[in-house]
């Protein structure tokens, strides 16, 4: 029996009827058609389905849709678009911080939460933050570079941008 | 040379879709009236099917089709050896083999239906060990009908009744190894093995299949090889190519060789027909994707090599057994490609290789980034270090002594071009400071250094076709069918076309792969796209330019041969002010759109084909036919590492690593580096811990928690990785470029193994070199020392 769910999705009030056992990732992907949130392992290991709930990174494959009632959910679709990229999205593009791109949305959402809490993270802190976001294609080198560059941009000092 | 696109870090064509999440992968597709499929798989490694009862599944509400083998075309499909039915026919040959397929309203209902299917098995003896399987009197014969299987004849006879479970064989013969060993000052014999590992692409294998009422089959798939898939569907369903349409979204979440062959696309087409022509979606579970969509082949490689005191190899004999699993799939091609691996690195005055791929009751092996070259170079490069130590020579020096040089005819009779052997070794050894002092002991940690080189030949004959269309808004569209599963081939093509047409790369795009629209490409594999696909794109650009010039010539009152194209202006050579814009070649007489007066559209078409020399099946060699070409090209890689081993825990820590690749010419250096880092990290996982743990044919770690591949914390810190792109021109490559994504994975494991030996004097012979195995090897060494 479906229930009414009210929550904030990417800054807008959202109302859906969902089954009590519907997972957050399924509501996002199947019900709302927001397929930017990916799913690989389905058991909270890979991080591909990471979204932010009240600003905290959450595995949407481990959370019931009902659990986000009256909370705020942010997905990759909410942080920027082709015309107005988020600094992290811009940095991932410029640094070639993806290959297949499947892990990228989850990686960017985790990085966004990291930078909100720590605007100037060390490489070790970046690697620690994204250790739960598996990437099979990049080797992480350029992901780390991109997050460092985005952090520098956000702080208003991008040494890479200046040197180029 | 001043360029507008080549050699530049152009952002990926599909980049915006990837960073914003707007790009649609196959897994993101949904269709009206779509049903979900699930596969009921065998729980036995080798058994006769006595009874398959699907009645309860069929009766379940929401189930629309349940099919078994007899509901499918009675064909066999494969990849050169045609041995596999869509669903198990009379018997099962591995745990995980598809037996029944179900289509239902939802994934959950399909899964429930699978649980209601009853299968009664009669167990047969099963064989997992490759030696047991290879015997002339094996405990069981896995394919009794093998002698009658249809095969593509390449190389020596593949079926040998003396070894009834072997399904593929390759051999190379050059000189006389016995005579060679007599000339040697030192002879070393060793055996190397590797565990089965998984590709683990982040996008699990998935597809939607539709067999429509007109008899056409359309498939949307996460495949990396549209035309391979098309061909296999055609064989499996006994349908002509013209009735099959394969669509691959522009976004594919990784492949690594594991998405070349058909998975369940054909099977789901049969379900579609059975369910009243409704589209059928299947998403492999993580377990299916890791274990039953193809794995990397375990090899056992025996080597015996003789060297002179000065380090020159005089003789080498290799015997290789490949555990192929229950169906041939890519087994033979992996075996053949791996057989030539040694010959792309070094010269061997006398050489003998026998390489068998053998059926066992394990999940089938497929292509895996390098087609067996990871395994071969793991063995050969560890062995080279043993040879160096046997004669007291520096591991760098022995490699420099034997490595092939530009223009050399190798042991297989093939002329080597774009050879970066010495250059790569010098790059990495300089970067790592080879020969310099370093702190060897640090508490329980012992440091050591090692290096390895590797190579990978790219398949020939090889063919790619490309269409290049110039639209009336002067943008360019490339139509090709080369799967971009993340490596960035589409952007490479865009850069090549932009350069050839002298147009801003931002005005060039690629079309989505659709085999009813986009032309033939052999496969996205064998590192071949930049070379073969790239050449096709350049040729198609030439073709479209000719069409433009032909239309512009009367307008400019000039000879077509005197015209040039730049920035979408056609002008007379040497007279830049005498021009016509390409868009002005189109006419718009009323309000019904624009058209060309002749030619239909500005559409260049071309096929790039690489022919190969005839190879003697007795020797694996080609003769002096004026071509001397067995492969399209050879790509080479080298790595040097400094590691620390903890002698109390067996743990290995990567301190520094230098990686180098020859790429002919870097079309997009940022993309090249990305692929190099990617392969390094994948190689690291395989070297140190990745392993599918098998227990009587069952895989015990079929999830991403227990099958762990490198995380951001496992990969070395950025400061520890030094990346070197080496550019030795490939004479017939597009702008002298070639592909390289495979060779770059192979040196990692032997470089680490050699560094472990340098650190603690222990020779690791099995991949992955887990902490447990390193500790056991240390113990064995200590025990042996005590016994003396």
Shape of chain B: globular
What's the β-strand tally of chain B? 33
User: In CATH, what is the class of the largest domain in chain A?
Assistant: Alpha Beta
Gyration radius of chain A, rounded? 16 Å
Our measurement of the CA-to-CA distance between the termini of chain B, rounded to an integer number of angstroms, reads: 66 Å
Q: What do you see in this structure?
A:
The complex is a heterodimer of chains A (164) and B (788). Chain A is α+β, with helices and mostly antiparallel strands and 164 residues long. Chain A has two domains: 3-79, Ubiquitin-like (UB roll) (Roll), CATH 3.10.20.30; 87-157, DNA polymerase, domain 1 (Orthogonal Bundle). In chain A, 37% of the residues lie in helices and 15% in strands. The longest helix of chain A has 14 residues, at 104-117. Chain B is α+β, with helices and mostly antiparallel strands and 788 residues long. Chain B has three domains: 26-126 and 205-283, Aldehyde oxidase/xanthine dehydrogenase, a/b hammerhead (Aldehyde Oxidoreductase, domain 3, Alpha-Beta Complex); 299-404 and 412-459 and 616-787, Aldehyde oxidase/xanthine dehydrogenase, molybdopterin binding domain (Aldehyde Oxidoreductase, domain 4); 462-610, Aldehyde Oxidoreductase, domain 4. Chain B is built from 18 helices and 33 strands. In chain B, the strands form eight sheets. An eight-stranded mixed β-sheet of chain B has the order 3-7-1-14-11-12-13-23, with helices on both faces. In chain B, strands 9-17-16-15-10-33 form a six-stranded mixed β-sheet, sandwiched between helices. Chains A and B meet through helix 3, helix 4, helix 5 and helix 6 of A and helix 1 and helix 16 of B.
């Amino acid at each position: 029996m479906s229930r009414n769910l009210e929550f904030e999705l990417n800054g807008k009030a959202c109302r859906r009827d969902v089954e009590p056992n519907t997972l957050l990732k399924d509501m996002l992907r199947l019900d709302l058609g927001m397929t930017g949130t990916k799913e690989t392992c389905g058991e909270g290991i890979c991080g591909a389905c990471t979204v932010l709930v009240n600003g905290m990174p959450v595995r949407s494959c481990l959370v019931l849709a009902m659990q986000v009632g009256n909370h705020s959910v942010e997905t990759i679709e909410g942080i920027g678009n082709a015309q107005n990229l988020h600094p992290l999205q811009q940095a991932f593009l410029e640094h070639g911080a993806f290959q297949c791109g499947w892990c990228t949305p989850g990686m960017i959402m985790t990085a966004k939460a990291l930078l909100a809490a720590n605007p100037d993270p060390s490489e070790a802190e970046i690697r620690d933050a994204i250790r739960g976001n598996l990437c099979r294609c990049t080797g992480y080198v350029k992901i780390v570079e991109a997050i460092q560059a985005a952090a520098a941009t956000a702080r208003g000092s991008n040494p890479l941008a200046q040197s180029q | 040379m001043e360029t507008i696109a080549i050699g530049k870090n152009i952002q990926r064509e599909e980049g915006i879709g990837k960073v914003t999440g707007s790009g649609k992968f196959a897994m993101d597709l949904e269709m009206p009236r779509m049903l979900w499929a699930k596969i009921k798989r065998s729980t036995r490694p080798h058994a006769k099917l006595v009874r398959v009862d699907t009645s309860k599944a069929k009766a379940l509400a929401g189930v629309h089709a349940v099919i078994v083998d007899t509901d499918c075309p009675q064909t066999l499909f494969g990849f050169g050896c045609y041995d596999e039915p869509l669903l198990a026919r009379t018997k099962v040959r591995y745990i995980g083999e598809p037996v029944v397929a179900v289509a239902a309203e939802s994934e959950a209902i399909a899964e429930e239906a699978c649980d209601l299917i009853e299968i009664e098995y009669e167990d047969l003896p099963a064989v997992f060990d490759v030696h047991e399987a290879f015997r002339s009197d094996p405990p069981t014969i896995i394919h009794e009908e093998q002698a009658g299987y249809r095969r593509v004849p390449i190389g020596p006879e593949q079926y040998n009744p003396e070894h009834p479970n072997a399904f593929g064989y390759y051999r190379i013969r050059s000189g006389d190894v016995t005579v060679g060993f007599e000339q040697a000052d030192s002879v070393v014999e060793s055996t190397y093995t590797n565990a089965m590992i998984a590709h683990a692409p982040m996008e699990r294998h998935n597809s939607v299949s539709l067999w429509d009422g007109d008899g056409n089959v359309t498939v949307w798939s996460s495949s990396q090889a549209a035309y391979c898939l098309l061909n296999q569907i055609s064989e499996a369903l006994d349908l002509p190519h013209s009735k099959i349409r394969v669509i691959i979204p522009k976004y594919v979440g990784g492949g690594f060789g594991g998405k070349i062959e058909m998975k369940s696309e054909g099977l789901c087409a049969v379900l579609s027909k059975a369910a009243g022509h409704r589209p059928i979606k299947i998403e492999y579970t993580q377990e299916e994707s890791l274990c039953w969509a193809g794995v990397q082949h375990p090899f056992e490689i025996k080597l015996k090599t003789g060297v002179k005191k000065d380090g020159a190899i005089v003789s080498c004999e290799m015997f290789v057994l490949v555990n192929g699993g229950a169906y041939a799939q890519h087994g033979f091609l992996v075996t053949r490609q791996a057989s030539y691996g040694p010959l792309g690195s070094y010269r061997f005055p006398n050489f003998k290789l026998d390489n068998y791929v053998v059926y066992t009751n394990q999940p089938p092996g497929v292509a895996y980034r390098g087609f067996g070259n990871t395994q071969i170079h793991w063995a050969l490069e560890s062995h080279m270090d043993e040879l160096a130590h046997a004669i007291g020579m520096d591991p760098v020096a022995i490699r420099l002594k034997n490595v092939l040089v530009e223009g050399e005819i190798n042991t297989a009779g093939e002329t080597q071009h774009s050879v970066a052997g010495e250059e790569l070794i010098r790059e990495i050894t300089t970067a790592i400071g080879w020969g310099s002092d370093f702190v060897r002991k640090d508490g329980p940690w012992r440091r050591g250094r090692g290096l390895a080189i590797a190579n990978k030949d790219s398949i020939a004959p090889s063919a790619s076709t490309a269409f290049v269309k110039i639209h009336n808004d002067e943008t360019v569209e490339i139509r090709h069918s080369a799967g971009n599963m993340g490596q960035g081939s589409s952007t490479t093509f865009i850069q090549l076309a932009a350069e050839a047409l002298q147009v801003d790369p931002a005005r060039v795009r690629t079309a989505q792969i659709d085999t009813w629209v986009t032309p033939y490409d052999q496969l996205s594999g064998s590192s071949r796209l930049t070379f073969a696909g790239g050449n096709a794109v350049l040729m198609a650009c030439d073709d479209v330019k000719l069409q433009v010039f032909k239309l512009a010539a009367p307008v400019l009152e000039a000879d077509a041969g005197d015209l040039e194209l730049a920035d979408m202006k056609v002008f007379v050579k040497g007279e830049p002010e005498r021009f016509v814009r390409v868009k002005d070649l189109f006419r718009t007489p009323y309000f019904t759109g624009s058209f060309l007066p002749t030619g239909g559209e500005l559409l260049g078409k071309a096929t790039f084909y690489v022919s190969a020399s005839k190879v003697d099946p007795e020797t694996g060699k080609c003769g002096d036919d004026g071509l001397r070409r067995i492969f399209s090209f050879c790509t080479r890689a080298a790595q040097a590492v400094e590691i620390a081993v903890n002698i109390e825990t067996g743990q290995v820590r990567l301190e520094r690593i230098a990686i180098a690749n020859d790429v002919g010419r870097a079309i997009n250096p940022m993309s090249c580096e990305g692929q190099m880092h990617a392969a390094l990290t994948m190689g690291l996982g395989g070297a140190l811990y990745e392993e599918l743990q098998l227990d009587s044919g069952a895989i015990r770690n079929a999830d991403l928690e227990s099958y762990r591949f490198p995380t951001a914390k496992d990969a070395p810190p950025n400061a520890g990785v030094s990346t070197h792109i080496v550019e030795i021109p490939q004479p017939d490559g597009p702008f002298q470029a070639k592909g390289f994504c495979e060779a770059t994975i192979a040196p990692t494991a032997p470089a680490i193994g050699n560094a472990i030996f340098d650190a603690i004097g222990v020779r690791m012979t099995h991949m992955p070199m887990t902490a447990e195995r390193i500790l056991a090897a240390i113990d064995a060494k200590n025990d042996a020392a005590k016994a003396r």
